[in-house]
Amino acid sequence: GKCQVQLRHYVELQQELAINYCKLAVVSVDSTEVNDAFRTGLGAQFPFLSDQERKVVKLLNMTETSKSRGVTAMPHTFSLLPDLTIHNLYNGYWYLGRPTLDELRSDLRAMLRKVRPDFEGPVG
After folding, report:
1. Cα dist. 3→7, 95, 113 in Å?
2. pLDDT confidence band for 72 (50 / 70 / 90)
């Protein structure tokens, strides 16, 4: 439910990201087949990667354990600089902890300022 809403927002943003030379990828604990079907249904043009064995989410300590559901992946969103260092991290355990499209745009502007001296336009 919550992840579907978030991913629909990312689909809204995908063309804007493409014309700004930005990349988007999703990592899910679902199987490749489930990811492919979901990606197609959303009309997403960005990759959906599978971490079905939960190796990455465990490595990054992005899990919680409950008696009823076992080890569960907690959704996170990372804004990464071109060298793949983390600019910003959102913990989406609560839906309101997930970034809005405006927050992602703000992250992109801040990252561009860091890596592109000409971002603000010509000086002088």
Report:
1. 6, 9, 30
2. confident
Q: What angle do CA 38, 9, 89 make, to 5 degrees?
A: 100
Q: pTM for the complete prediction?
A: 0.81
d(CA 43, CA 35): 12
Strand partners, 72: 64
Residues 62 and 73: beta-carbon distance below 8 Å = yes
Residue 103: both structure tokens together: 């927050």
Residue pLDDT, tens place only, 28-66: 888 999 999 999 999 999 999 999 998 988 898 888 887
CA-based angle 52:2:17, to the nearest 5? 80
Burial of 25 (0-12, 13-18, 19+ CB in 10 A): exposed
Strands (E), 1-121: 26-28, 48-50, 63-66, 70-73, 76-80, 86-91
> What number is the average pLDDT over the span 95-123?
87
